[in-house]
UniProtKB/TrEMBL annotation:
Location(s), subcellular: Cytoplasm
Keyword Cytoplasm: yes
CDD domains: HATPase_Hsp90-like
Quaternary structure and partners: Homodimer.
Full protein name: Chaperone protein HtpG
NCBIfam families referenced in this protein's UniProt entry, alphabetically: PRK05218.1
Start and end residues of each stretch annotated as A: 1-336
Keywords: ATP-binding, Chaperone, Cytoplasm, Nucleotide-binding, Stress response
One term under GO cellular component: cytoplasm
Keyword flag Cell inner membrane: no
Domain Histidine kinase/HSP90-like ATPase: 32-191
Organism of origin: Sphingomonas populi
Molecular functions (GO terms): ATP binding; ATP hydrolysis activity; ATP-dependent protein folding chaperone; unfolded protein binding
Length: 628
């Protein structure tokens, strides 16, 4: 049936974010404009896969054209390029929704980044963020899309010059594909090479040669279509027939990444369940790594039919892994929701997750340098598993690498740490904070340094959570250097370090005075074992929460009030000795000193003084006295 309409096109404005994105695209200075072709072909292939899936439950949608196909047509004379698919298509409403609004959460992140990187011309960004359809405006000054949804007897068109508005209108079905979508690009003058057969064929073969839908090329509008990609799913081929480049091209087009995979895993599981896995660990962080939904992107296929990318095949802490699992056993004709409940899927989830972790473990020994790069990039995400996945905690602790006070910037495993324990050392010590450099200089570490005890420096947000969740490694608990009594006296001092004399009576009196002066502000004031250079530091009370975790929770409004800290004073510090002396001055001077010691310890922890005005008044008074 053919419908004709006389309606005038309706002009609409893009959502503000789309308009901004388009502006960036149109004015982009990227050398790598080829990306647009990959994005449009990947959209066309997705549309074919969506139809293949919907066709399982509604064969009528396929009509008499069951073969998915993408056709690219060149028109050098008119400087036009067309990409057409016979996939699912879009209704008028879907056109407006998909091409007039920001469909992906990552797009905003992309824009923020691209705006910053504009001058440096970082061509990797577009690929990284997979901004898809709009990349057409890098090469075209006008884009027209005509689409007809499978099973519908009407068609619609969308057109825009990428300058803030688009038009949308119903079109005669005679002017639309019988089913699917046609994207017509009016190429810019400097993009004329995209009508050259050779250029297009080479670009498609390298970027999209392994999409699971055959691709045809027509050199001219009336030329015969020639098949340039067979649509054979790469993962079904034997490993020995696939080159590293083919894996990389597939990874790029399927995962929307622009980097090279840091690890490629391709295997076939046989036995109770049969399935094929083709998984990649990216080299760089995917843009959506820290999206709040923490969703994974591994796709689920059943006998080469794409089912869903929402099956959450891997645990959330492996969400950086890209790729697919193609199962032979799952039924094709069940809904996505039912598949989620399937015990077969559960078995696949478990086995694939274990396999990925064991491959990482193997890599850690076989190619340490490559492994450490992966850890450097994704360690903070993998560490989420330490408190989320109890069953795999051991494995994850084995994979974990840390910077420490004695590693000189190198990564250390817990195995390394435990091998170097000092005599009488029964715990794994760590310090948490937000910045490695500052952590390494924190006063709490001084007593550890004097004994040569290695302290792990944990600077990722996630660290405060797992490390306080009751973990141990080979029977050794993790203990914060800011927590409780450090119990260091049992561990011998390193060569050349002098054992500390017990605090004198005068110092003990001074400590009692400080405690009285500070009153409720602190849980306790005591002489410190752990300080050798600084005069004072703050620690958590015995059994208290790690101070860094406490700060994080309080900052997130998840803690009513932080527990009061313990102020530890270094009884051997010259200033403390001087303040403790009988002639140190009147009670006012000592009271100022008590408050200043407390405030100074807070500052060393990256906090503000309790009362910044009182702090500056005291500081001024003390300085003035010093001048007199
Ligand atoms: N050829 C097509 N057939 C059917 N729908 C399409 C087609 N091209 C685009 N779309 C629709 O437009 C939406 C937006 O496309 P766009 O390429 O901008 O983002 P995406 O495909 O969701 O993500 P990305 O391409 O960045 O991976 C798609 O999600 C899809 O719904």
């Amino acid at each position: 049936m053919t419908t004709t309409t006389e309606a005038a096109p309706e002009t609409r404005s893009f959502e503000a974010d789309v308009a901004k994105l388009l502006h960036l695209m149109v004015h982009s200075v990227y050398s790598d404009k080829d990306v647009f072709l990959r994005e449009l072909i990947s959209n066309a292939a997705d549309a074919c896969e969506k139809l293949r899936y919907e066709g399982l439950s509604d064969a009528a949608l396929l009509g008499d054209d069951g073969q998915p196909r993408i056709t690219v047509t060149l028109d050098a004379e008119a400087r036009r390029l067309t990409i057409e698919d016979n996939g699912i298509g879009m209704s008028e409403a879907e056109l407006a929704d998909a091409l007039g609004t920001i469909a992906r959460s990552g797009t905003k992140a992309f824009m923020d980044k691209i705006a910053g990187a504009k001058d440096s011309g970082d061509s990797h960004l577009i690929g990284q963020f997979g901004v898809g359809f709009y990349s057409a405006f890098m090469v075209a000054d006008r884009v027209e899309v005509v689409s007809r949804r499978a099973g519908s007897d009407s068609a619609a068109s969308w057109a825009s010059d990428g300058l803030g508005t688009y038009t949308i209108q119903p079109v005669d079905t005679a002017d639309a594909p019988a089913r699917g979508t046609r994207v017509l690009l009016h190429l810019k003058e400097d993009a004329a090479s995209y009508t050259e057969s050779y250029t297009i064929e080479r670009t498609i073969k390298t970027q999209s040669g392994h999409v699971p839908v055959p691709i045809f090329l027509k050199d001219a509008p009336d030329a015969e279509p020639k098949q340039i990609a067979d649509g054979a799913a790469l993962w079904t081929k034997p490993k020995s027939e696939i080159t590293a480049e083919e894996y990389q091209d597939f990874y790029r087009s399927a995962a929307g990444q622009f980097d090279a995979p840091a690890l490629t895993l391709h295997y076939r599981a046989e036995g109770l369940h049969e399935y094929t896995v083709l998984a990649f660990v990216p080299e760089t962080k995917p843009f959506d790594l820290f999206d709040p939904d923490r969703a994974g992107r591994v796709k689920l296929y059943v006998r080469r039919v794409f089912i869903t990318d929402e099956a959450q095949i891997l645990p959330r802490y492996l969400r950086f892994v890209r790729g697919l699992v193609d199962s032979n056993d799952l039924p094709l004709n069940v809904s996505r929701e039912m598949i989620q409940e399937s015990p077969v899927l559960a078995a696949i989830q478990k086995a694939v997750s274990n396999r990925i972790l064991s491959e990482l473990d193997k890599l850690a020994t076989s190619d340490t340098e490559r492994y450490l790069k992966i850890w450097d990039t994704f360690g903070p995400v993998l560490k989420e598993g330490l408190y989320e996945d109890f069953a795999r905690r051991e494995t994850l602790l084995g994979l974990a690498r840390f910077k420490s006070t004695t590693s000189g910037g190198a990564w250390r495993s817990l195995k390394d740490y435990v091998a170097d324990l000092k005599d009488n050392q029964t715990a794994i010590y760590y310090a948490t904070g937000t910045d490695l450099e500052r952590l390494a200089t924190s006063p709490q570490l001084e007593g550890f340094r004097a004994r040569g005890i290695e302290v792990l420096l944990l600077a990722d947000q996630v660290d405060s959570f797992w490390v306080t969740s009751g973990v141990d490694y080979e029977g050794k608990p993790f203990k914060s250097v800011t927590q409780g009594l450090a119990d260091l006296s049992l561990i011998p001092l390193a060569d050349g370090e002098q054992p500390a004399a017990a605090a004198s009576d005068a110092v003990n009196d001074f400590i009692a005075f400080v405690k009285e002066t500070l009153g409720d502000a602190v849980a306790d004031v005591r002489a410190s074992d752990r300080l050798t250079e600084s005069a004072a530091c703050l620690v958590a009370p015995e059994h208290g929460m790690d101070r860094q975790l406490e700060k994080l929770l309080a900052g997130a409004g998840r803690l009513d009030a932080a527990a009061k800290p313990v102020l530890e004073i270094n009884p051997r510090h010259a200033l403390v000795e001087r303040l403790s002396a009988a002639d140190a001055g009147d009670a006012d001077v000592r009271a100022d000193a008590a408050h200043l010691l407390f405030d100074e310890a807070r500052i060393a922890d990256g906090e503000l003084p309790v009362d910044p005005r009182a702090f500056s008044a005291r500081l001024m008074r003390v300085l003035q006295r010093g001048m007199n």
